[in-house]
Amino acid sequence: MAGLEFKDIKVGYKRNQVIHGVNLHVEPGERVALLGANGAGKSTILKTISGLLTPTTGSIKFDGEDLTGKNPAVIVDSGVIHVPEGRRVFPALDVEENLQAANYGRGSESLKEGLRAAYEAFPILRERRHQAAGLLSGGQQQMLSLARAIMAKPKLLLIDEMSLGLAPVLVKEFYESLGTLFSDDVTLLLVEQNASMALAHCKRFYVIRNGEIALEGASDDYRDNHTALQSAYLGI
């Protein structure tokens, strides 16, 4: 099993620093929520872990390996899989081609096993496997994004705003399915604005405000403490 250590990280876009010396950790097999308002820096943290952004200071370690500043492909090979905000499927490719892309660099046996697992998790994708991904509904595209993560066999899974743009009933279904889609030894860092849903499915949480940690704690201690969460979100 693998844990994540994100230590004293500063990162930004050009001259605009977005993350200001953030420290966080996720224990092996733990599920942790990263909460905050729009523009707080949540997605920037995930992009930095997955190598899409390079920090100016600090270090990122996963399973004891230093991933700071490494190429995203190397980070993926380390077992770090990022399900981005907005799903980001390849719209012109069909469903199965999208899944095959997640098997890049692996053999035919891995592809067979992965497709079987993905289609068992989401039978509708088997039915739509020859349909262009861009023609799927929002919920089906989220299924496809999660199915690609299944194909990639993550050790550390980063999920960005799984509930974005989806009906509440679908959001509930996706959250409740996380326990069966991915084994207990998969470490999870989940970015979410829906605090109540995230706290219900994650052991611990961090609240990010203006690129800094405003609050952290055990989910059980804050699930009914809306005042403290609101204060952390808004700085009031």
Task: Tell me what you see in this structure.
This protein has a domain of 117 residues: Rossmann fold, CATH 3.40.50.300. It is built from ten helices and ten strands. The longest helix has 15 residues.
Topology:
Blueprint (H helix, E strand, L loop, with lengths): L3 E10 L2 E11 L4 E5 L6 H8 L7 E6 L2 E2 L5 H6 L2 E4 L11 H7 L6 H14 L1 H5 L10 H15 L3 E5 L7 H14 L5 E6 L2 H7 L2 E6 L2 E7 H4 L3 H9 L2
Helix pairs in contact: 3-6, 4-6
Relevant terms:
alpha/beta, globular, Rossmann fold, six-stranded mixed sheet, 10 strands, 38% helix, single chain, 236 residues, four-stranded antiparallel sheet
- CATH class assignment of the domain at 1-69 and 189-236: Alpha Beta
Count of DSSP H/I helices: 10
Helical content class = 25-40%
CATH topology of the domain at 1-69 and 189-236: Rossmann fold
Question: Can you count the beta strands?
Answer: 10
For the record, the CATH architecture of the domain at 1-69 and 189-236 stands as: 3-Layer(aba) Sandwich
Describe the main β-sheet briefly: 6 strands, mixed
| SSE run | EEEHEEHEHHHHEHEHEEHH
The H-level CATH homologous superfamily of the domain at 1-69 and 189-236, spelled out, is P-loop containing nucleotide triphosphate hydrolases
Biggest sheet strand order reads: 6-7-8-3-9-10
Would you kindly provide a brief summary of this structure?
With 236 residues, the protein is an alpha/beta fold.
